[in-house]
């Protein structure tokens, strides 16, 4: 009943347009992100994203192309945000708390994905809020409000923060290994970084998890509607399930991984490999089951599979994401940008696969999509099991040769 007559292929391109925008600037962010203030970079990125979100309904009335262009600009701004957050993580938390930290702040992704889907459905049905345009007005305004709070309370380092006590500053300065000097672009060990097997593990896992995440976030509602013929109210419930299960999994897995390493029961590298194996191989099995078991005659079987998938998926954050924060603190921004590049490539691959299969009208579209995600998860888990590490690498201080 809407007035925007966009085809399914156009809708798929809208969902992936921000990924294409991020792809344009990700190379720039990987080269310069470590040179500037991460807190200010994040503020600017969020402001651009929020303003374009607020005016999105007006842009849709102008033309489809204008709206897609705005989504690409949002993607360009967002390519700087996650690396900036990860740089702040290395500057504010000691290594013994990195896994718990990663589990804590990445849970925001699950809360955002879960609550935004639920809130959007309610806003869309609301006559008082006048339907879907209010989604963009509300979400954009909340982002701008967050920027105000962020600018008041956050600094690049604990030593410059007025809300941190002297004892806290002294403790963090003593226990955090983040370098105080900016890395030099000219002397950065690019060859050593590019040939590092732990870095390859991080990038491969990032691609696998990015493919699974984008598939679930963008296409799970479509799958539930097309394949299982679920009503709208159940689609909302089932869509929320894996995201909240991920939060529960991170709450347990993150502190547990740090605890066993801190107590000396095992090394942090071995603990993260166990967590990564749970995340990769467990998610692979759940995705394969999700591809073949649920049908329109027994749609309820999808719920326990989604719960299992969400819970074990959290292991990846306690695995490769912890490595991202520990193997080279001086180059966390660069590694984060490269990691995001692979994640964006995975998002583009996921949306392109769905678009191609939709245009071909193949009856096996969803088994192919979820089966591909399952295989990628297994490959990423196997590589990290053999080559992953949380140890600080020999090139992490700028030395290009071993």
TrEMBL record:
One GO process term, biological-process aspect: monoatomic anion transport
GO cellular component: membrane
GO molecular function, one term: transmembrane transporter activity
Subcellular location: Membrane
Pfam family of the protein (one): MFS_1
Every Major facilitator superfamily (MFS) profile domain range: 1-392
Recorded superkingdom: Eukaryota
Annotated keywords: Membrane, Transmembrane, Transmembrane helix
Membrane spanning stretches: 12-34, 41-60, 72-89, 101-123, 135-154, 190-215, 235-253, 274-293, 305-325, 337-360, 366-387
Membrane topology, as annotated: Multi-pass membrane protein
Chief localization: membrane
InterPro entries: MFS, MFS_dom, MFS_Na/Anion_cotransporter, MFS_trans_sf
PANTHER family: PROTEIN CBG12249, SOLUTE CARRIER FAMILY 17
The protein's name in its UniProt record: Major facilitator superfamily (MFS) profile domain-containing protein
Organism: Pristionchus entomophagus
Phylogenetic lineage: Eukaryota, Metazoa, Ecdysozoa, Nematoda, Chromadorea
């Amino acid at each position: 009943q809407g007035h925007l007559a966009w085809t399914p292929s156009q809708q798929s391109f809208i969902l992936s347009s921000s990924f294409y925008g991020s792809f344009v600037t990700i190379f720039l962010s990987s080269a310069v992100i470590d040179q500037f203030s991460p807190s200010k970079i994040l503020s600017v990125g969020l402001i651009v994203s929020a303003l374009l979100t607020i005016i999105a309904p007006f842009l849709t009335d102008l033309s489809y192309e204008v709206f897609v262009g705005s989504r690409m600009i949002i993607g360009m701004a967002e390519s700087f945000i996650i690396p900036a957050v990860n740089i702040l993580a290395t500057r504010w938390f000691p290594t013994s708390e990195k896994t718990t930290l990663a589990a804590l702040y990445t849970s925001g992704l699950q809360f955002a994905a879960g609550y935004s889907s639920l809130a959007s459905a309610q806003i869309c049905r609301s006559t008082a809020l006048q339907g879907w345009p209010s989604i963009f007005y509300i979400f954009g305004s909340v982002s701008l409000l967050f920027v105000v709070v962020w600018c008041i309370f956050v600094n690049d380092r604990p030593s410059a923060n007025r809300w941190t006590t002297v004892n806290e500053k002294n403790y963090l300065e003593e226990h955090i290994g983040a370098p105080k000097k900016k890395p030099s672009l000219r002397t950065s060990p690019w060859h050593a970084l590019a040939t590092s097997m732990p870095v390859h593990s991080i990038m491969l896992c990032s691609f696998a998890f990015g493919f699974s995440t984008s598939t679930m976030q963008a296409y799970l509602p479509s799958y539930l509607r097309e394949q299982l013929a679920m009503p709208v109210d159940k689609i909302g419930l089932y869509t929320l399930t894996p995201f909240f299960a991920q939060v529960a999994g991170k709450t347990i897995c993150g502190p547990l991984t740090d605890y066993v390493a801190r107590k000396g029961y095992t090394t942090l590298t071995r603990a993260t490999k166990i967590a990564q194996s749970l995340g990769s191989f467990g998610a692979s099995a759940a995705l394969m089951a999700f591809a073949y078991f649920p049908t329109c005659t027994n749609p309820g079987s999808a719920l326990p599979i989604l719960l299992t998938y969400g819970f074990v998926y959290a292991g990846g954050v306690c695995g490769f994401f912890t490595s991202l924060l520990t193997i080279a603190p001086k180059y966390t921004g660069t590694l984060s940008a490269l990691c995001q590049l692979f994640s964006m490539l995975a998002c583009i691959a996921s949306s392109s696969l769905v678009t191609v299969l939709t245009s071909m009208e193949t009856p096996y579209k969803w088994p192919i999509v979820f089966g591909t995600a399952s295989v990628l998860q297994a490959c990423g888990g196997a590589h990290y099991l053999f080559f992953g590490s949380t140890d600080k690498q020999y090139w992490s201080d700028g030395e290009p040769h071993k």
